[in-house]
Amino acid sequence: MSSTSKHQSQGKNKLKYPFHFQALKKIGIACCDYYQIEPKALTGPCRLRELVIPRSVCMNLMRDLTWHSLGSIGKFFQGRDHTTVIYHTKSKETENGLWNKNNTLGQKIWNDFEKLRNIIERLNEVPKT
Prior knowledge:
By secondary structure, the protein is mainly α. 67% of the residues lie in helices and 0% in strands.
């Protein structure tokens, strides 16, 4: 087998960025545990409210707590476009749509966001020895 074909065959089975999603994966797992949903449901295409809210919270946490780009976050959610992430982050910033603080659902989403942010930050703390 030539070195070119060996290299090409190895590349097919590898992720493009093998360690790229580690921080995103930790946040995704924390969100799945909090909302008691499966990871495939969080990143999947379903648009049920029970999944859209955790997905929106998760995208905003990823954007706030990591250095990852909009495109990287979108790819984590089964190849969604970066504009999907923009929509969710803008709705949080402007407090529109799901993130509207003037209704009970919006208040619950903000509370969930803050609780999850605290949980994730505690998970990433390094214990003092």
